UniProtKB/TrEMBL annotation:
Belongs to the mTERF family. The lineage of its organism: Eukaryota, Viridiplantae, Streptophyta, Embryophyta, Tracheophyta. It comes from the Eukaryota. It comes from Dipteronia dyeriana. It is found in: Plastid, Chloroplast. This is Transcription termination factor MTERF4, chloroplastic. Residues 511-525 have a biased composition (Acidic residues).
Length: 525
């Protein structure tokens, strides 16, 4: 019985050879020839390992030579592992070759971007598409959203966002929330970083947090449209501290949702750098903290007025135009928007106008501002129209000046209502014009709700009183006065006064009877 079979396991520097014997073999093989083993260095490209064995089993001889096994160092090219002159079944590119290919592809992408006007300098190190076709797809998608080349150059990193993996999922999520597609262009111009976000990890938690601040789900789209940057804030960072501070100064917790809905920019304001210094400055002017809280509830946008750039210079301008320092709290509380506009040019313009039409002095103008800060935003045409009306009623220029200084609201009320009130004053009340000069605030009261009703009551009782005693009190107080047999002169006030405790209250009839024709170009900074 003959046996032939050897197994060779090739290692890097040695060859292990051992015989394999089939089962039930009891013959002893005889090694009749010597073997030769030669191992050479890997540095010799054509070195060979040759083994030759001769053996005889049961009087027969068998000769075997190993195949040529070449041991060579790795190639740097794309050539495979050669054996016996034949090609390998597969080939593996080298790292250097892959790197060179990536550099070449990126250069083509950069050339494409430069060709359409995009500067790719900031894209170094960013993972980009390997082909121009994929990059063109991204640029076209952004164009379809309304973004221009300039928009992309403002934030070129947006080109690192995949259309299918990043852009479409984010935009679909915003659309499902209710963000209008018509706002996507402006949304992405303001906050293109949203396209990098994960819907599950980044966006959905912010939306849930906003709901926890009592912002209605139906209002979330408007909040995001107004202030898309909120999607990039940390939940327990600026957003939570700004809200906590506002509640701490007296803003009602139930008002937070509405406040943030109307002015979500508050969520991005740092307490130590923006909110707290603003509140403390208003306090330094003499406005009580509770009044500041009420002002913020009704006009949260005032927190966005630049303290150093606008507010402080505007306060100094008021003092320059003869507004008394002790009246600053009243002025700011009545018309907070005043400290957020470009105020000084308006002050100069209105002062010159009133000087020219009613011959008011600088001190008169300061008094007008104190009583009606909003006058700085009333249009010139409205002021001239109201002055002409008063002159047509028979008042002299000096009387008109005194009326305007005493009650500047006469420059901005609904002129048709003023005509009705003056007609009743002449026909039914039959009072002299001097009564209106002494109490021009008569025009600010509702004709049906106050003037007629109270006038009939005093006529019935047979009382004679000033217009101030008749009108300058609440309905409850007037009912008490009707029980008097005589008029208490101490109760006769010449003009209504501003009360900080009733800061947010409106007297009935005032709102409907006013016509504040304001400039429309006021911008709050």
């Amino acid at each position: 019985m003959k046996i032939s079979g050897y197994v060779g396991i090739r290692k890097s520097n040695f060859l292990l050879v051992h015989p394999q014997f089939p089962a039930f073999t009891y013959f002893k093989p005889q090694l009749t020839s010597s073997s030769t083993l030669r191992i050479t260095s890997n540095n010799d490209k054509n070195s060979r390992l040759i083994t030759k064995f001769k053996y005889s089993v049961a009087d027969r001889k068998f000769s075997s030579s190993s195949v040529n096994a070449s041991v060579s160092k790795p190639n740097t090219g794309r050539s495979g592992w050669k054996q016996g002159g034949s090609s390998s079944l597969y080939s593996r590119p080298s790292l250097l070759g892959m790197k060179n290919e990536r550099i070449a592809n990126r250069a083509k992408v950069y050339d494409f971007l430069r060709g359409i006007g995009i500067v790719p300098d900031e894209l170094d190190g960013l993972e980009l598409p390997v082909t121009v076709e994929v990059m063109r797809e991204r640029v076209d998608f952004l164009h379809n959203l309304g973004l221009t080349i300039d928009d992309i150059n403002n934030y070129p990193l947006v080109l690192g966002c995949s259309v299918k993996k990043n852009m479409i999922p984010v935009l679909d999520y915003l659309g499902k929330l209710g963000v209008r597609k018509s706002t996507f262009t402006e949304f992405l111009r303001r906050y293109p970083q949203v396209l990098h976000a994960s819907v599950v990890v980044d966006l959905a938690p912010v939306v849930k947090y906003l709901q926890g601040l009592d912002i209605k789900l139906s209002d979330i789209p408007r909040v995001l449209e107004r202030y898309p940057e909120v999607l990039g804030f940390k939940l327990e960072g600026t957003m939570s501290t700004s809200v906590a501070y506002l509640v701490g100064i007296g803003v009602a917790r139930r008002e937070i949702g509405g406040l943030l809905t109307s002015y979500p920019e508050i969520l991005g304001m740092r307490v130590g750098r923006v909110v707290k210094p603003f509140v403390e400055y208003l306090e330094s002017l003499g406005i009580p903290r509770f009044a500041i809280a009420k002002l913020i509830e009704k006009r949260p946008h005032m927190l966005g007025f630049g303290l150093e750039e606008r507010v402080k210079p505007n306060v100094e301008s008021l003092l320059e135009f003869y507004v008394r320092r002790e009246q600053l709290p009243s002025v700011v509380a009545q018309y907070p928007e005043m400290i957020g506009i470009d105020l000084k040019p308006k002050l100069i313009g209105q002062q010159n106008l009133l000087k020219s039409i009613i011959d008011s002095s600088p001190e008169d103008f300061g008094s007008i501002i104190e009583k009606m800060p909003r006058v700085v935003s009333v249009t010139n045409s409205a002021i001239i129209k109201h002055v002409d009306f008063l002159k047509d009623c028979g008042f002299s220029l000096d009387q008109v000046r005194r009326m305007v200084v005493g009650c500047p609201q006469v420059l901005a009320l609904n002129i048709d209502v003023m005509k009705l009130s003056f007609s009743y004053f002449q026909r039914e009340m039959q009072r002299p014009l001097d009564d209106l000069v002494a109490f021009p605030a008569y025009y600010t009261y509702g004709l049906e709700s106050s003037i007629k009703r109270r006038h009939k009551m005093i006529v019935k009782k047979g009382l004679k009183c000033s217009l101030s005693w008749l009108l300058n009190c609440s309905d409850e107080k007037f009912e008490e006065r009707m029980d008097y047999d005589t008029i208490d002169m101490e109760e006769m006030e010449t003009m209504p006064s501003f009360d900080m405790n009733t800061l947010m209250e409106q007297r009935s009839g005032d709102e409907s009877d006013s016509e504040y024709e304001e400039d429309s170009d006021d911008e709050y900074v």
